[in-house]
Amino acid sequence: MMQRVCLIAGLLALAASAETAEQRGKRVVDEAIATLGGQNFLNLRNVEAHGRLYSFYREKLQGLAVATLYFEYRTPSGPDKVGMVERQSFGKGKKEDYAVLFTPTEAWDITFRGARPLASDRFPRYKLTTMHDVFYILRERLHEPGMTFIGQGADVLDNRPVEIVDIIDNNNEKTTVYFDATEKVPIRQKFRHLDPLDNQQDEEVTYYTKFRDVGNGVRWPFDLQREHNGEKIFEMYADTVEVNKNLPGTLFMLPPNATVLPRVE
Predict the structure, then answer these.
(1) What is the CATH number of the domain that holds 166?
(2) How many domains does the chain have?
(3) For the segment 142-172, what is each residue's pLDDT rounded down to a tens digit?
(4) Sign of the CA dihedral 79, 100, 190, 6?
(5) Which of 28, 91, 127, 129 is close enough to 97 for a disulfide, judged by CB 3.0 to 4.6 Å?
(6) pLDDT in tens, 113-143
(7) Which residues span the domain enclosing 223?
(8) Rounded Cα distance, 27 and 43, in Å
(9) CA-to-CA distance for 141 and 79, rounded, in angstroms?
(10) Residue 259 located in a structural domain
C-alpha cells in the first residue's frame, strides 16, 4: 500500500514539474471545486447538517450534544466582513432547547429566557475560523482581490497522497490545505494566528472525512475534527446533510420581542 501511495505521489510530482507554483495551486483548487460540485457548489445557498457534536478540553470529553447546524451564504456587506450566517440548534427531535446564532456582526445565545450576547471574544474567533475555512474560501472568497493559490508540491498524509496548497489573501493571511490527490477533495487545513491574550502563535487544524453526495450535484464532508495547538477540541459526526433548502429568514434572526439579556464575559 505504501509503495502504491509513494508511486502516485511521485507521478504527481513528475506531472506537475512543468507548472509554476501558482499554476499548480490553481489547478489543484479548480479540481477540488469540480469534485465538490463545480458551479453547483459555487452557487450553494445554504447547508443543514444534523448529528452529534463533541467538545474536548485537554483531550478529555467535556460535552456531547445532538444538534442541527444551519449555514446560509450572504453577500458580504464590505471588505473583511463575514458573508455567512449560522445557527446551531440544540435539542432532540424538532424541539429546540437552545441555540447559538452568529450574524454578520455578533454572536448570541438564545434560550427561553431571551437572547444574550456571547462573550466579546466569541464573534472574533468565529470570524477568524470562518474566513480561514477552505469551504468558505472556495465558495465565498475565490475571486477576492489579492487571493493567491501557491502549490507546495506532493506529499503523503495518513498513507494518502496529497497535494499541498497555500491559500494567501490580500492581508497576507495564509491557510494551508491538503487535498487528496486521488479524490481531489480537501482533507486537512491549518492556519496560524496571534493569540491576543498571551501574544503567542496558535495553530488551528481541521480534518474533513466521509465526503458524500448531498443532492444538487454537491459533495460535502460528514465528519470533521478540529485541533488547537495539537489538542483535539471539537468533533462533529453528521447523520444527514441537506443543501439549498427553503430555510426561513427568521432562522437567522433574534426571536421577535426577545428579551435582550446583558453580556457575561
Answers:
(1) 2.50.20.10
(2) 1
(3) 999 999 999 999 999 989 999 999 999 999 9
(4) negative
(5) 91
(6) 999 999 999 999 999 999 999 999 999 999 9
(7) 2-252
(8) 20
(9) 11
(10) no
Per-residue confidence (pLDDT) for residue 77, from 0 to 100: 76
Query: pLDDT by residue (tens digit) across 215-251?
Result: 989 999 999 999 999 999 999 999 999 999 999 999 9
Cell of 64: 456531547
What is the phi-psi region of residue 233: left when phi exceeds 0, alpha when psi lies from -120 to 50, beta otherwise?
alpha
Residue 261 in domain: no
Contact 220, 212 (CB under 8 A): yes
Using CA atoms, how far apart are residues 114 and 127, in angstroms rounded to an integer?
Answer: 24
Whole-model pTM over 0.85: yes
Question: Using a CB cutoff of 8 Å and minimum separation of 24, what contacts does 88-96 make?
Answer: 90/65, 90/66, 91/66, 91/67, 92/66
Does 257 fall in a domain? no
What stretch of H or E contains 132?
helix 122-132
pLDDT at res. 91? 87
Whether residue 111 is contained in a domain is answered as yes
**Integer distance in angstroms from the first to the last C-alpha of the chain?**
51
